[in-house]
Amino acid sequence: MNAVVDFLNTILWGYVLVYGLLAVGIFFTIRLGAIQFRHFPEYFRVITGSRETSSDGISPLQALTISLASRVGTGNLAGVAVAIYLGGPGAIFWMWMVALVGMATAYAESTLAQLYKVRNGDGQYRGGPAFYMAAGVGSRAMGYAFSICLILSFGLIFSAVQANSISEAMTEAFGVPGIVTGLVIAALAGIVIFGGIRSIANVADKIVPAMAGIYLLVAIYVLAIHITEVPAMLALIVKSAFGFEQAAGGFTGGFMAALMNGVKRGLFSNEAGMGSAPNIAAAAVPDPHHPSSQGLVQGLGVFIDTLLICTATALMILLSGAVDYGPDGAQGMVLTQNALGEHIGAAGPYFIAIAILFFAFTSIIGNYSYSESAMEFLGLGGRMPLMVLKTVAMGMVIWGAVQPVSAVFNLADASMAVMATINLVAILILSKTVVTLTRDYFDQKKAGKTPLFRFKEHPGIDKGVDPTIWNRDVAQERG
């Protein structure tokens, strides 16, 4: 089993995804007319005043906060530190590149998830890559494979990984035993998760903006006291990305180390193209009522995760001088804690411990929310199958808090890679549909109208689309 997992990781991460993610992101950036640059303000406008919910689903803002809850976790603190330790400062540049082109990829996959969403037995919106693979691509086999990988990685294993990060940080800062941390986190997460998607949305809606805001304020303080060093540090990141400064600070990895670690950690952090965020994007009631508006919301999530939060972590680490590239050098969460300790003293490690507590906790509940859509697709969306999944997920939280998770994390990497590969193929197949939806949205904007979508106006987009969702009386709504 380990040999199979290692082989999959070597092939998919070493060859397929490192180049495939960048290539697909560039493809959609070109195909959609550089949407993330030309229409950047629209990424923000679609969440303005969008807090209202309906009986059908959650609000666009709640969908954003849940996807951020999943994205903003160990990847933003420990993952950035690992990227720098293994790939040098240049790894951050490739994280930026993955995010910038990833904004177009995230837009494409979440737009498709909105278009092909369905109503479950309770009348709630559900959808995601498995649904557009079955309805749009016409392959239920792709949907089944994707769903199994999603449940395995996001529904179960990543919960253990996040719990392990919380446990290590709490033990390092406060001396709290792992089992205690595990039981408390499992109990708190269970209260939220057993309440369903709306409960997760309500918690994420409150915690995520607060935790991200506080973390960025601390980063701004650190940048302010080192403002004269920031330009040189940014230049170092860019030069190191191409191997021009590979000996900086003792690092000798070069171009490929920066590229590989930056892309891998970038994907793990912002999830663009992986097919995870579309599962919650489909649960939203878009405002305006057009698939593209929710695609823009999730594209913004990639920007916030990587261009803001990951960059904040990276600059705090690099400006601290705490990076030791030797074999005994600190890495991961410990490096991030040491770095902030250099900036704000003894309070640094405690602040990072509290930050990862909230970041990783919300990742646990956000990750779980994705798996419900996969269960729905597999025909296991009933009360009892979901109860079993929730119980096992909580068990994984406790297990992850007390056991090393390196081996099982290797399995999660492979599962995530299979997910992403299948999803990238699907969105490429459906790229023409994404282009049609995008043109429809911005043509209406250009004409001064509120973008609204009726699939009957687009005879090429009707296969697998629920007419009760996208066949509303547009003329009447426009008044």
TrEMBL record:
Keyword Transmembrane helix: yes
Listed GO CC annotations: plasma membrane
GO MF terms held by the record: amino acid:sodium symporter activity
Keywords carried by this UniProt record: Cell inner membrane, Cell membrane, Membrane, Symport, Transmembrane, Transmembrane helix, Transport
Keyword Transmembrane helix: yes
Membrane topology field: Multi-pass membrane protein
Subcellular location: Cell inner membrane; Cell membrane
UniProt xrefs under InterPro entries: Na/Ala_symport
Gene3D superfamilies, alphabetized: Amino acid/polyamine transporter I
Main location: membrane
Pfam families (alphabetical): Na_Ala_symp (PF01235)
Bilayer-spanning residue ranges: 12-30, 141-161, 173-195, 207-227, 233-259, 300-323, 343-365, 377-402, 414-435
Family note: Belongs to the alanine or glycine:cation symporter (AGCS) (TC 2.A.25) family.
Annotated protein name in UniProt: Alanine or glycine:cation symporter, AGCS family
Species in which this protein is naturally found: Loktanella atrilutea
